[in-house]
Design goal:
Elements lengths: L1 H14 L5 E11 L8 E6 L8 E2 L3 H13 L3 E5 L15 E2 L2 E5 L2
Parallel strand pairs: 3-5
Antiparallel strand pairs: 1-2, 1-4, 2-3, 4-6
Length: 105
């Protein structure tokens, strides 16, 4: 009985694991449309390629992105959304960011 419970527990844990993507590079540009309330950024990815635009949901996200853009500092963008599977074309343009990002190494 204990073996069955252990196996069921392990199966349940594997089903709730989230797919995650870590995109590293520098911010290529930042922009704001008049009909959006927040800024969006786009990355020049390490290894080549450019990400789609990422909508930054909070003012602190915007501040971090502006600082990184102005100083040309590398950022790491960690997506926790399950349906984001790659850094190039991995989400629709201006998708609201879900996860965290780090400025610097």
């Amino acid at each position: 009985m204990k073996k069955i419970l252990l196996m069921v527990s392990l199966l349940l844990l594997t089903n709730v694991a989230n797919a995650t993507v870590n995109c590293t590079g520098t911010i290529r540009n930042i922009y704001k449309w008049d009909n959006f309330e927040t800024l969006s950024m786009r990355l020049n990815l390490d290894g080549g390629g450019v990400s789609h635009y990422i909508s930054l949901p909070t003012k602190s996200d915007e501040s971090m992105a502006l600082m990184a853009f102005a100083s040309k500092t590398k950022v790491q963008v960690y997506w926790s959304a399950e349906d984001v599977t790659t850094c190039i074309n991995g989400w629709t343009h201006n998708r609201k960011f879900k996860g965290y990002f780090v400025v610097g190494e």
